[in-house]
Amino acid sequence: MNSEDIIVSVIIPIYNVEKYLNDCIISLRRQTHKAIEIILVDDRSLDHSVDIARKHGEEDSRIIVYSHDKNKKQGAARNTGLRIAKGKYIMFLDSDDIYPLDAVANMLIAIEQTQADMVIGKMAWLRNGKITPVEYINRFINSAELWCDENLRGMPADKCYFGSACNCIYNLEWLKKCGITFVEGVYWEDVHFSVSVWLHAQNIAYIPKTMYLRTERIDENNLSTTQDYDMKKFLDRDYLESSIFNAFFERCKNNASLKNDITIILQRIYKVTEGMIEHRNDNLEIWVQEWYRGYKKRHSILLRKLQNI
Predict the structure, then answer these.
(1) 269-304 pLDDT, tens per residue?
(2) Are 23 and 49 in contact (CB under 8 A)?
């Protein structure tokens, strides 16, 4: 496919997902909308994931396989995809998940009809062949009409969406103009990205139907980020708050509305972190208790700095 024919680029980070990757790629190759570029970024997998990716690349000219020289984590892999993408629009797909067959077509229609900066779709769990809604995302979309018209950007900060970047489509030129990328080397990179998108966007649309099917991993030795919490995942919650604070602090000095939004967003992130603590691994109990005391202080300091400007 010529670069001028590509309308949507789909970016898939890959790391040790040989059990899931084939289904993921097939769900893209079978999309009803064909003018897509499939960018597979291998983050130095230790299993056969890259072999699976290359095999599909040999069979389908729309597939690009790019390998990092070292493991850089998912945020860096997505940024690599953003740098080399040729499509007008961008979508992200995790390598253990799949798209419904008409997901790209429906998302493309929505963003072109609305001329939105981004479009959000519903998400569902795929468990043993059964599809069940991902409640926090679907609840957000179901309640959207109570707060705004077709443009979700009118929703207040305590209701706004920031979470997975995967059930969305984005205008790539707009992302680059705003300088929006993923933080690298950390977990929870979706949150910083989604907050940045939300705060920069002028128009956010949505589709009230499932655009993304999420897999619940059953391999205890290879769980996803949200299925298992280790020390780094807690430490990166600290980084998440400070990175959002640092990204928008200067703008808050002359913008009372943004200052209020950032305050609410930091409080929401803090509340989710507290929920994580309740579900920590038993062997982290003492360490988490000690870390949490410092985390609370650092969180309070950020809020005070916002209040005092």
Answers:
(1) 999 998 888 766 666 778 888 899 999 999 999 999
(2) no
Distance of alpha carbon 164 from alpha carbon 189, whole angstroms: 9
Q: Identify the three-state secondary structure at position 43.
A: coil
pTM equals 0.92
Q: How far apart are CA 264 and CA 273, in angstroms?
A: 14
What is the residue extent of each domain of the chain?
A: 3-215, 229-307
User: pLDDT tens digits for 70-127?
Assistant: 999 999 999 999 999 999 999 999 999 999 999 999 999 999 999 999 999 999 999 8
Instruction: Count the helices and strands in the chain (H runs, E runs).
Output: 10, 8
Q: If you write DSSP's letter for every residue of 215-253 in order, what string do you get?
A: E----TTS--GGG---HHHHHHHHHHHHHHHHHHHHHHT
Does the domain spanning 3-215 belong to CATH 3.30.420.270? no
For residues 309 and 20, give the distance between their C-alpha atoms in angstroms, rounded to a whole number: 48
Asked if 94 and 13 touch (Cβ cutoff 8 Å), the reply is yes
Q: How far apart are CA 140 and CA 144, in angstroms?
A: 6
The rounded distance, in Å, linking the Cα atoms of 27 and 17 is: 15
Tokens of 171: 């205008």
| Category of 185 on φ-ψ map: left (φ > 0), alpha (ψ -120 to 50) or beta | left
